Protein backbone atom coordinates (compact mmCIF):
# COMPACT_ATOMS: atom_id res chain seq x y z
CA UNK A 1 0.00 0.00 0.00
CA UNK A 2 1.41 3.37 -1.04
CA UNK A 3 -1.55 5.74 -0.65
CA UNK A 4 -4.27 6.25 1.95
CA UNK A 5 -7.73 4.94 1.01
CA UNK A 6 -9.33 7.75 3.00
CA UNK A 7 -7.56 10.86 1.63
CA UNK A 8 -5.18 9.72 -1.15
CA UNK A 9 -2.05 10.98 0.63
CA UNK A 10 1.12 8.86 0.86
CA UNK A 11 1.33 6.34 3.70
CA UNK A 12 4.38 5.46 5.79
CA UNK A 13 5.33 2.34 7.70
CA UNK A 14 5.33 2.83 11.46
CA UNK A 15 4.03 1.36 14.73
CA UNK A 16 0.87 3.26 15.74
CA UNK A 17 0.43 4.36 19.36
CA UNK A 18 -0.86 1.49 21.47
CA UNK A 19 0.07 -1.06 18.81
CA UNK A 20 3.05 -3.39 18.72
CA UNK A 21 3.78 -3.92 15.04
CA UNK A 22 4.43 -1.81 11.95
CA UNK A 23 1.37 -0.71 9.94
CA UNK A 24 0.77 1.51 6.96
CA UNK A 25 -0.27 4.87 8.43
CA UNK A 26 -1.41 7.93 6.45
CA UNK A 27 1.03 10.85 6.68
CA UNK A 28 -1.83 13.36 6.51
CA UNK A 29 -5.06 11.99 8.09
CA UNK A 30 -3.21 9.36 10.21
CA UNK A 31 -5.62 6.57 9.29
CA UNK A 32 -4.09 3.18 10.18
CA UNK A 33 -4.48 0.61 7.41
CA UNK A 34 -4.59 -2.94 8.73
CA UNK A 35 -3.90 -6.02 6.64
CA UNK A 36 -5.39 -9.31 7.79
CA UNK A 37 -5.33 -12.85 6.39
CA UNK A 38 -8.11 -13.85 4.04
CA UNK A 39 -10.33 -16.91 3.96
CA UNK A 40 -10.44 -19.18 0.93
CA UNK A 41 -13.55 -21.34 1.06
CA UNK A 42 -14.29 -24.48 -0.93
CA UNK A 43 -16.16 -27.76 -0.95
CA UNK A 44 -15.74 -31.49 -1.41
CA UNK A 45 -18.96 -32.20 -3.31
CA UNK A 46 -20.01 -35.76 -3.98
CA UNK A 47 -22.45 -37.49 -6.29
CA UNK A 48 -22.80 -41.13 -5.26
CA UNK A 49 -19.16 -42.27 -4.91
CA UNK A 50 -17.68 -39.56 -7.13
CA UNK A 51 -16.03 -36.25 -6.21
CA UNK A 52 -16.38 -32.97 -8.10
CA UNK A 53 -13.17 -31.41 -9.42
CA UNK A 54 -12.72 -28.39 -11.67
CA UNK A 55 -9.89 -27.81 -14.14
CA UNK A 56 -8.56 -24.29 -13.82
CA UNK A 57 -8.94 -21.88 -16.75
CA UNK A 58 -6.94 -19.16 -14.95
CA UNK A 59 -3.61 -18.61 -13.28
CA UNK A 60 -2.14 -19.64 -10.96
CA UNK A 61 -2.02 -23.34 -11.86
CA UNK A 62 -3.83 -23.00 -15.19
CA UNK A 63 -4.89 -26.45 -16.40
CA UNK A 64 -4.58 -28.11 -12.98
CA UNK A 65 -7.49 -29.69 -11.10
CA UNK A 66 -8.96 -28.26 -7.92
CA UNK A 67 -11.91 -28.49 -5.59
CA UNK A 68 -14.24 -25.57 -6.29
CA UNK A 69 -12.97 -22.79 -4.01
CA UNK A 70 -12.24 -19.09 -3.85
CA UNK A 71 -12.03 -16.07 -1.61
CA UNK A 72 -14.87 -15.62 0.85
CA UNK A 73 -16.90 -12.48 0.07
CA UNK A 74 -18.43 -10.01 2.50
CA UNK A 75 -22.04 -10.62 3.54
CA UNK A 76 -21.90 -14.41 3.36
CA UNK A 77 -21.03 -17.25 5.73
CA UNK A 78 -18.00 -19.41 4.95
CA UNK A 79 -20.32 -22.28 3.98
CA UNK A 80 -22.38 -20.01 1.70
CA UNK A 81 -19.14 -18.95 0.05
CA UNK A 82 -18.14 -22.57 -0.56
CA UNK A 83 -21.45 -23.36 -2.23
CA UNK A 84 -21.35 -20.10 -4.23
CA UNK A 85 -17.94 -21.08 -5.60
CA UNK A 86 -19.28 -24.54 -6.42
CA UNK A 87 -22.02 -22.91 -8.47
CA UNK A 88 -19.73 -20.40 -10.16
CA UNK A 89 -16.91 -22.77 -11.06
CA UNK A 90 -18.76 -26.01 -11.79
CA UNK A 91 -22.37 -24.97 -12.39
CA UNK A 92 -23.13 -27.55 -9.74
CA UNK A 93 -26.11 -27.49 -7.40
CA UNK A 94 -26.03 -29.02 -3.92
CA UNK A 95 -28.81 -29.84 -1.46
CA UNK A 96 -27.82 -26.64 0.38
CA UNK A 97 -26.15 -28.31 3.33
CA UNK A 98 -22.43 -28.00 4.02
CA UNK A 99 -20.51 -29.61 6.88
CA UNK A 100 -17.27 -28.04 8.06
CA UNK A 101 -14.48 -30.49 7.21
CA UNK A 102 -11.02 -28.89 7.12
CA UNK A 103 -9.35 -25.68 8.30
CA UNK A 104 -5.84 -25.21 6.94
CA UNK A 105 -3.53 -22.30 7.77
CA UNK A 106 -1.37 -20.94 4.96
CA UNK A 107 0.46 -18.23 6.90
CA UNK A 108 3.06 -17.30 4.28
CA UNK A 109 0.25 -16.59 1.79
CA UNK A 110 -1.74 -14.72 4.45
CA UNK A 111 -4.65 -17.10 3.98
CA UNK A 112 -6.77 -19.68 5.75
CA UNK A 113 -8.34 -22.37 3.56
CA UNK A 114 -11.64 -23.80 4.78
CA UNK A 115 -13.33 -26.79 3.14
CA UNK A 116 -16.84 -28.17 3.60
CA UNK A 117 -18.48 -31.47 2.65
CA UNK A 118 -21.60 -31.28 0.51
CA UNK A 119 -23.89 -33.52 -1.54
CA UNK A 120 -24.74 -32.63 -5.13
CA UNK A 121 -28.45 -32.48 -5.92
CA UNK A 122 -27.83 -33.64 -9.49
CA UNK A 123 -24.80 -34.84 -11.48
CA UNK A 124 -25.32 -32.08 -14.07
CA UNK A 125 -22.31 -29.77 -14.33
CA UNK A 126 -21.69 -26.61 -16.34
CA UNK A 127 -18.13 -25.28 -16.01
CA UNK A 128 -17.98 -21.54 -15.40
CA UNK A 129 -15.63 -18.95 -16.88
CA UNK A 130 -12.83 -19.89 -14.50
CA UNK A 131 -12.97 -23.59 -15.37
CA UNK A 132 -11.83 -25.47 -18.48
CA UNK A 133 -13.77 -28.49 -17.28
CA UNK A 134 -15.73 -29.82 -14.31
CA UNK A 135 -16.01 -33.54 -13.74
CA UNK A 136 -17.00 -36.18 -11.21
CA UNK A 137 -14.07 -38.45 -10.35
CA UNK A 138 -14.10 -41.90 -8.82
CA UNK A 139 -11.29 -42.31 -6.29
CA UNK A 140 -9.21 -44.42 -8.69
CA UNK A 141 -9.36 -41.71 -11.36
CA UNK A 142 -8.31 -38.66 -9.33
CA UNK A 143 -5.43 -36.97 -11.19
CA UNK A 144 -3.09 -36.71 -8.19
CA UNK A 145 -0.17 -35.38 -10.21
CA UNK A 146 -2.37 -32.62 -11.60
CA UNK A 147 -3.87 -31.20 -8.37
CA UNK A 148 -3.52 -27.41 -8.25
CA UNK A 149 -2.96 -26.72 -4.54
CA UNK A 150 -1.52 -28.56 -1.57
CA UNK A 151 -4.54 -27.65 0.58
CA UNK A 152 -6.79 -29.30 -2.01
CA UNK A 153 -4.64 -32.43 -2.07
CA UNK A 154 -4.60 -32.63 1.75
CA UNK A 155 -8.38 -32.20 1.91
CA UNK A 156 -9.00 -34.85 -0.74
CA UNK A 157 -6.75 -37.34 1.07
CA UNK A 158 -8.46 -36.66 4.41
CA UNK A 159 -11.86 -37.08 2.77
CA UNK A 160 -10.99 -40.39 1.15
CA UNK A 161 -9.39 -41.77 4.34
CA UNK A 162 -12.44 -40.76 6.38
CA UNK A 163 -14.82 -42.29 3.85
CA UNK A 164 -12.90 -45.56 3.99
CA UNK A 165 -13.01 -45.40 7.81
CA UNK A 166 -16.78 -44.91 7.64
CA UNK A 167 -16.82 -41.65 9.63
CA UNK A 168 -15.91 -38.03 8.95
CA UNK A 169 -13.98 -35.95 11.47
CA UNK A 170 -12.78 -32.33 11.42
CA UNK A 171 -9.26 -31.79 10.15
CA UNK A 172 -6.81 -29.00 10.76
CA UNK A 173 -3.37 -28.40 9.34
CA UNK A 174 -0.97 -25.85 8.02
CA UNK A 175 1.03 -25.40 4.88
CA UNK A 176 4.72 -24.96 5.61
CA UNK A 177 6.49 -22.05 3.95
CA UNK A 178 8.35 -22.64 0.69
CA UNK A 179 11.63 -21.81 2.46
CA UNK A 180 11.41 -25.11 4.32
CA UNK A 181 11.35 -27.12 1.10
CA UNK A 182 14.39 -29.17 0.32
CA UNK A 183 13.34 -30.28 -3.15
CA UNK A 184 10.97 -29.24 -5.87
CA UNK A 185 10.50 -26.16 -7.99
CA UNK A 186 10.68 -22.62 -6.67
CA UNK A 187 7.24 -21.49 -5.63
CA UNK A 188 5.53 -18.66 -7.44
CA UNK A 189 4.90 -15.57 -5.31
CA UNK A 190 1.56 -15.52 -3.52
CA UNK A 191 -1.08 -13.71 -5.51
CA UNK A 192 -4.09 -11.93 -4.12
CA UNK A 193 -7.31 -11.63 -5.98
CA UNK A 194 -10.90 -12.45 -5.30
CA UNK A 195 -12.82 -15.36 -6.67
CA UNK A 196 -9.91 -17.73 -6.77
CA UNK A 197 -7.34 -19.54 -4.71
CA UNK A 198 -4.02 -17.81 -4.42
CA UNK A 199 -0.95 -19.86 -5.12
CA UNK A 200 0.03 -20.92 -1.65
CA UNK A 201 3.38 -22.18 -2.93
CA UNK A 202 4.08 -24.57 -0.09
CA UNK A 203 3.46 -28.08 1.07
CA UNK A 204 1.21 -29.54 3.76
CA UNK A 205 2.59 -30.20 7.21
CA UNK A 206 1.96 -33.61 8.71
CA UNK A 207 -1.79 -33.78 8.74
CA UNK A 208 -3.33 -33.04 12.08
CA UNK A 209 -6.58 -34.92 11.99
CA UNK A 210 -8.39 -34.65 15.26
CA UNK A 211 -11.70 -35.94 16.43
CA UNK A 212 -13.98 -32.89 16.80
CA UNK B 1 -12.51 3.37 0.24
CA UNK B 2 -12.24 6.63 -1.66
CA UNK B 3 -8.68 6.54 -3.04
CA UNK B 4 -6.51 3.90 -4.70
CA UNK B 5 -3.79 2.37 -2.50
CA UNK B 6 -1.57 1.96 -5.56
CA UNK B 7 -1.63 5.45 -7.12
CA UNK B 8 -3.70 7.70 -4.82
CA UNK B 9 -6.31 8.50 -7.50
CA UNK B 10 -10.06 8.40 -6.75
CA UNK B 11 -11.81 5.04 -6.99
CA UNK B 12 -15.26 4.33 -8.39
CA UNK B 13 -17.74 1.54 -7.67
CA UNK B 14 -18.22 -0.78 -10.63
CA UNK B 15 -18.27 -4.46 -11.61
CA UNK B 16 -14.85 -5.35 -13.07
CA UNK B 17 -14.66 -7.42 -16.27
CA UNK B 18 -15.07 -11.11 -15.49
CA UNK B 19 -16.46 -10.37 -12.03
CA UNK B 20 -20.07 -10.44 -10.86
CA UNK B 21 -20.26 -7.89 -8.08
CA UNK B 22 -19.41 -4.22 -7.53
CA UNK B 23 -15.87 -3.42 -6.37
CA UNK B 24 -13.88 -0.29 -5.76
CA UNK B 25 -11.84 0.23 -8.94
CA UNK B 26 -9.20 2.92 -9.51
CA UNK B 27 -10.22 5.47 -12.14
CA UNK B 28 -6.61 5.87 -13.28
CA UNK B 29 -4.57 2.66 -12.82
CA UNK B 30 -7.68 0.40 -12.78
CA UNK B 31 -6.51 -1.59 -9.74
CA UNK B 32 -9.44 -3.55 -8.27
CA UNK B 33 -9.64 -3.28 -4.48
CA UNK B 34 -11.24 -6.33 -2.90
CA UNK B 35 -12.74 -6.41 0.57
CA UNK B 36 -12.98 -9.76 2.34
CA UNK B 37 -14.21 -10.85 5.77
CA UNK B 38 -11.70 -10.93 8.60
CA UNK B 39 -10.96 -13.59 11.19
CA UNK B 40 -11.25 -12.86 14.90
CA UNK B 41 -9.36 -15.49 16.87
CA UNK B 42 -9.63 -16.27 20.57
CA UNK B 43 -9.27 -18.96 23.20
CA UNK B 44 -11.07 -20.67 26.04
CA UNK B 45 -8.14 -21.07 28.43
CA UNK B 46 -8.52 -23.14 31.57
CA UNK B 47 -6.62 -23.56 34.81
CA UNK B 48 -7.97 -26.55 36.71
CA UNK B 49 -11.76 -25.99 36.60
CA UNK B 50 -11.61 -22.26 36.00
CA UNK B 51 -11.89 -20.27 32.75
CA UNK B 52 -9.92 -17.15 31.84
CA UNK B 53 -11.92 -14.01 31.10
CA UNK B 54 -10.71 -10.46 30.48
CA UNK B 55 -12.57 -7.24 31.28
CA UNK B 56 -12.37 -4.85 28.37
CA UNK B 57 -10.54 -1.55 28.79
CA UNK B 58 -11.53 -0.38 25.29
CA UNK B 59 -14.59 0.15 23.15
CA UNK B 60 -16.75 -1.46 22.00
CA UNK B 61 -18.20 -2.99 25.17
CA UNK B 62 -15.84 -1.21 27.59
CA UNK B 63 -16.10 -2.84 31.01
CA UNK B 64 -17.66 -6.08 29.75
CA UNK B 65 -16.03 -9.50 30.07
CA UNK B 66 -14.69 -11.47 27.12
CA UNK B 67 -12.55 -14.42 26.18
CA UNK B 68 -9.16 -13.16 25.04
CA UNK B 69 -9.58 -12.59 21.29
CA UNK B 70 -8.73 -10.22 18.48
CA UNK B 71 -8.09 -9.91 14.77
CA UNK B 72 -5.81 -12.50 13.25
CA UNK B 73 -2.59 -10.94 11.97
CA UNK B 74 -0.63 -11.80 8.85
CA UNK B 75 2.18 -14.34 9.19
CA UNK B 76 0.54 -16.40 11.92
CA UNK B 77 -1.82 -19.37 12.10
CA UNK B 78 -5.28 -18.87 13.60
CA UNK B 79 -4.20 -20.83 16.69
CA UNK B 80 -1.03 -18.76 17.06
CA UNK B 81 -3.20 -15.64 16.91
CA UNK B 82 -5.47 -16.96 19.67
CA UNK B 83 -2.50 -17.62 21.97
CA UNK B 84 -0.93 -14.26 21.07
CA UNK B 85 -4.15 -12.49 22.09
CA UNK B 86 -4.18 -14.50 25.32
CA UNK B 87 -0.72 -13.22 26.09
CA UNK B 88 -1.45 -9.64 25.11
CA UNK B 89 -4.78 -9.27 26.89
CA UNK B 90 -4.30 -11.42 29.98
CA UNK B 91 -0.54 -11.86 30.31
CA UNK B 92 -1.36 -15.55 30.40
CA UNK B 93 0.90 -18.34 29.26
CA UNK B 94 -0.40 -21.64 27.90
CA UNK B 95 1.32 -24.96 27.26
CA UNK B 96 1.40 -23.95 23.57
CA UNK B 97 -1.30 -26.32 22.38
CA UNK B 98 -4.63 -25.11 21.02
CA UNK B 99 -7.52 -27.27 19.83
CA UNK B 100 -10.00 -25.83 17.34
CA UNK B 101 -13.33 -25.58 19.13
CA UNK B 102 -15.78 -23.16 17.46
CA UNK B 103 -16.18 -21.40 14.11
CA UNK B 104 -18.90 -18.74 14.11
CA UNK B 105 -19.92 -16.66 11.09
CA UNK B 106 -20.80 -13.01 11.72
CA UNK B 107 -21.67 -12.02 8.15
CA UNK B 108 -23.16 -8.59 8.87
CA UNK B 109 -19.91 -7.57 10.61
CA UNK B 110 -17.85 -9.14 7.78
CA UNK B 111 -16.13 -11.40 10.30
CA UNK B 112 -15.59 -15.01 11.24
CA UNK B 113 -14.89 -15.72 14.92
CA UNK B 114 -12.73 -18.77 15.64
CA UNK B 115 -12.14 -20.07 19.17
CA UNK B 116 -9.64 -22.63 20.43
CA UNK B 117 -9.33 -24.60 23.69
CA UNK B 118 -6.08 -24.26 25.61
CA UNK B 119 -4.57 -25.09 29.00
CA UNK B 120 -2.81 -22.41 31.03
CA UNK B 121 0.72 -23.27 32.13
CA UNK B 122 0.32 -21.22 35.31
CA UNK B 123 -2.52 -19.33 37.00
CA UNK B 124 -0.46 -16.10 36.97
CA UNK B 125 -2.18 -13.32 35.00
CA UNK B 126 -1.10 -9.80 34.07
CA UNK B 127 -3.83 -7.81 32.30
CA UNK B 128 -2.52 -5.95 29.24
CA UNK B 129 -3.32 -2.44 28.03
CA UNK B 130 -6.65 -3.51 26.53
CA UNK B 131 -7.87 -5.15 29.75
CA UNK B 132 -9.11 -3.63 33.00
CA UNK B 133 -8.82 -7.04 34.63
CA UNK B 134 -8.11 -10.70 33.86
CA UNK B 135 -9.47 -13.41 36.09
CA UNK B 136 -10.11 -17.14 36.36
CA UNK B 137 -13.81 -17.90 36.81
CA UNK B 138 -15.46 -21.01 38.17
CA UNK B 139 -18.59 -21.88 36.19
CA UNK B 140 -20.89 -20.60 38.95
CA UNK B 141 -19.18 -17.20 38.95
CA UNK B 142 -19.24 -16.39 35.22
CA UNK B 143 -20.81 -12.91 34.83
CA UNK B 144 -23.35 -13.91 32.15
CA UNK B 145 -25.06 -10.52 32.11
CA UNK B 146 -21.71 -8.81 31.53
CA UNK B 147 -20.36 -10.82 28.58
CA UNK B 148 -19.17 -8.52 25.78
CA UNK B 149 -20.04 -10.47 22.63
CA UNK B 150 -22.61 -13.04 21.59
CA UNK B 151 -19.92 -15.23 19.99
CA UNK B 152 -18.11 -15.32 23.33
CA UNK B 153 -21.29 -16.26 25.18
CA UNK B 154 -22.10 -19.02 22.68
CA UNK B 155 -18.57 -20.40 22.92
CA UNK B 156 -18.62 -20.39 26.73
CA UNK B 157 -21.97 -22.20 26.81
CA UNK B 158 -20.75 -24.81 24.31
CA UNK B 159 -17.58 -25.30 26.34
CA UNK B 160 -19.42 -25.80 29.63
CA UNK B 161 -21.96 -28.17 28.08
CA UNK B 162 -19.20 -30.24 26.50
CA UNK B 163 -17.24 -30.35 29.74
CA UNK B 164 -20.31 -31.61 31.60
CA UNK B 165 -20.82 -34.22 28.86
CA UNK B 166 -17.22 -35.33 29.28
CA UNK B 167 -16.18 -34.79 25.65
CA UNK B 168 -15.42 -31.82 23.43
CA UNK B 169 -16.75 -31.56 19.89
CA UNK B 170 -16.37 -28.92 17.18
CA UNK B 171 -19.08 -26.27 17.07
CA UNK B 172 -20.25 -24.03 14.27
CA UNK B 173 -22.85 -21.30 14.23
CA UNK B 174 -23.71 -17.88 12.93
CA UNK B 175 -24.75 -14.62 14.45
CA UNK B 176 -28.00 -13.34 12.98
CA UNK B 177 -28.10 -9.74 11.79
CA UNK B 178 -29.40 -7.07 14.15
CA UNK B 179 -32.34 -6.48 11.77
CA UNK B 180 -33.81 -9.80 12.84
CA UNK B 181 -33.99 -8.74 16.48
CA UNK B 182 -37.39 -8.09 17.90
CA UNK B 183 -36.26 -6.73 21.25
CA UNK B 184 -33.20 -5.16 22.78
CA UNK B 185 -31.12 -2.07 22.14
CA UNK B 186 -30.11 -0.86 18.70
CA UNK B 187 -26.76 -2.34 17.83
CA UNK B 188 -23.77 -0.10 17.41
CA UNK B 189 -22.31 -0.05 13.91
CA UNK B 190 -19.65 -2.65 13.26
CA UNK B 191 -16.20 -1.30 13.84
CA UNK B 192 -13.04 -2.49 12.19
CA UNK B 193 -9.70 -2.35 13.83
CA UNK B 194 -6.94 -4.76 14.59
CA UNK B 195 -6.20 -6.25 17.96
CA UNK B 196 -9.76 -6.36 19.14
CA UNK B 197 -13.16 -7.83 18.50
CA UNK B 198 -15.48 -5.68 16.48
CA UNK B 199 -18.93 -5.15 17.89
CA UNK B 200 -20.88 -7.81 16.08
CA UNK B 201 -24.14 -6.33 17.26
CA UNK B 202 -26.23 -9.44 16.82
CA UNK B 203 -27.33 -12.57 18.55
CA UNK B 204 -26.38 -16.21 18.09
CA UNK B 205 -28.52 -18.46 15.92
CA UNK B 206 -29.55 -21.80 17.32
CA UNK B 207 -26.23 -23.44 18.05
CA UNK B 208 -25.17 -25.97 15.50
CA UNK B 209 -23.03 -28.32 17.49
CA UNK B 210 -21.87 -31.20 15.40
CA UNK B 211 -19.66 -34.13 16.13
CA UNK B 212 -16.37 -33.52 14.29
From TrEMBL, chains A, B:
Transmembrane regions: none
Protein name in UniProt: NUDIX hydrolase
Chain positions covered by the region annotation Disordered: 174-212
Xref: Pfam families: NUDIX, Zn_ribbon_Nudix
Keyword Iron attached: no
Molecular functions per Gene Ontology: hydrolase activity
PANTHER family linked: NUDIX HYDROLASE 23, NUDIX HYDROLASE 23, CHLOROPLASTIC
Keywords, ordered alphabetically: Hydrolase
Needed cofactors: Mg(2+)
Natural source organism: Lautropia dentalis
Listed InterPro entries: NUDIX_hydrolase-like_dom_sf, NUDIX_hydrolase_CS, NUDIX_hydrolase_dom, Nudix_N
Domain Nudix hydrolase: start-end pairs: 36-160
Origin superkingdom: Bacteria
